[in-house]
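Here is a tokenized protein:
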Amino acid sequence: MMKNASGFPRAQELRKGWRGLFSLFLLSLFLSPVFHLQAGVYKWVDENGRVHFSDRPTAAESTEVEIKQQERSAPSADQHNRQLKMQRMLEVYQEDREEKKEAKQKQQEEKAKRKQNCARAKDRYNSHVRARGIYRYDKDGERQYLSDEERTRHMKSIKAEIARWCK
């Protein structure tokens, strides 16, 4: 096997080896059902008079039993109705699972939104507590500082937001 500069076998040679292994695997896969089909069922009676069945002959008096294949008839109307009911039931279960999954996803999205809004409200509150003065911009773009009464109302509204989002 030739090696490349890094000391590993060449990829082409590795592929050849894998192809051989894969071919061997496929061959064994296709031949395995043949061996199972050749297995027979043997019947024998032990010293106590009990009848035994096996896939291999165990005693000289073992006899091979011929197994007759049962012919399959067309499904009856009752079977067909049961299959339809089963199919409907499976569809209902599937719809129920999808609805539950959607509800759980909505709940998780709502929880994430609440968490984010809670963090924002707390940050706003903390920054306003530390600030010397709170202001708004008027229509001319000038800062307009809030009076003590307005600041108190504004802080209460932020506390209400915290209470709303941080339940």
Summary: The first strand starts at residue 41 and ends at 45.
